[in-house]
Amino acid sequence: MVGQDDFVIHFFLTDKLKENVEIEISDAHIANEIIFTLSAETKDEVNNWAKEVLNAGGEIISKPKEFGEGYYGFVFADPDGHKFNVFYM
């Protein structure tokens, strides 16, 4: 559970997911099914997230930077290739 409202994100191992669904599972390293955006309170928090992602084995796809007026963030992939944004807005 994440955040004040206990938002739930489930991550399933590929072999367990394949056993229980009747659809093709895409390879997240080469395709995007969805990109989650996580909200940060400050630019420093964004930068700290980037450090933690690297420490946890994630890959930084786009380093922390300004994305137009009022947006600062970065994009990363978890070890399975799922993509996430972390933005301060």
UniProtKB/TrEMBL annotation:
Keywords: Dioxygenase, Oxidoreductase. SUPFAM superfamilies: Glyoxalase/Bleomycin resistance protein/Dihydroxybiphenyl dioxygenase. Residues 36-85 form the Glyoxalase/fosfomycin resistance/dioxygenase domain. The keyword ATP-binding does not apply. One of its GO terms (molecular function) is dioxygenase activity. This is Glyoxalase/bleomycin resistance protein/dioxygenase.
